[in-house]
């Protein structure tokens, strides 16, 4: 099953990181506008006032954000991978195939990978693979947002498709 964006709805894609670091306050009102909300486990906990210390807790927090109006939510969990929750279900996104020494910026790289993949026409499940690869490639290079294209491509081929979870 593929998940695609807002085709035919007359709306543009909207990607949101609802927790701006500058204010430190959850942007919960913006969740309602989001086609995709991407947060890490700490941000998910702050946004929902729920502890997010396991994959099950991440799923619960993502479902809360969906109830608040987000159509699709990804909660990244660093070296443990991520989860994707939509109205159609929940999926486990494979953990990165390589763990680098430079994780700063990997969450932004993940979202950038997802945005790039959806812009190329890939569905959200496929785009999540690109997000993991971009995050992992970022962590292998010093400096936030520094990706080596051949490394990204190699890592992307190693990531398993997202698996449905209950």
Give a description of the structure.
There is one protein chain. The longest helix has 16 residues, at 124-139. Helices cover 39% and strands 15% of the residues. A six-stranded mixed sheet has the order 1-2-3-4-5-6, sandwiched between helices. The chain has helices at 28-31, 41-48, 55-67, 106-119, 124-139, 149-158; strands at residues 15-16, 36-40, 72-76, 82-86, 89-93, 163-165. With 166 residues, the chain is of the alpha/beta class. It folds into two domains: 11-93, no CATH class; 94-160, no CATH class.
Q: What's the structural blueprint in terms of helices and strands?
A:
Layout: E1 15-16, H1 28-31, E2 36-40, H2 41-48, H3 55-67, E3 72-76, E4 82-86, E5 89-93, H4 106-119, H5 124-139, H6 149-158, E6 163-165
Parallel strand pairs: 1-2, 2-3
Antiparallel strand pairs: 3-4, 4-5, 5-6
């Amino acid at each position: 099953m593929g998940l695609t964006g807002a085709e035919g709805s007359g709306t543009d894609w909207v990607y949101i990181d609802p927790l701006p670091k500058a204010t430190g306050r959850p942007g919960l009102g913006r969740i309602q506008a989001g086609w995709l909300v991407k947060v890490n486990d700490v941000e998910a906990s702050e946004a929902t006032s729920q502890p997010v210390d396991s994959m099950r807790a991440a799923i619960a927090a993502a479902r809360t954000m969906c109830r608040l109006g987000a159509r699709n939510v990804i909660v990244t969990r660093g070296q443990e991978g991520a989860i994707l929750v939509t109205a159609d279900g929940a999926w486990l996104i494979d953990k990165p195939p390589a763990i680098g020494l430079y994780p700063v910026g990997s969450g932004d790289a993940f979202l950038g990978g997802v945005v790039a993949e959806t812009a190329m026409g890939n569905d959200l499940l496929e785009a999540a693979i690109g997000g993991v690869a971009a995050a992992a490639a970022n962590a292998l290079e010093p400096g936030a947002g520094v990706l080596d294209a051949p490394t990204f491509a190699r890592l992307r081929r190693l990531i398993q498709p997202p698996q449905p979870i209950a």
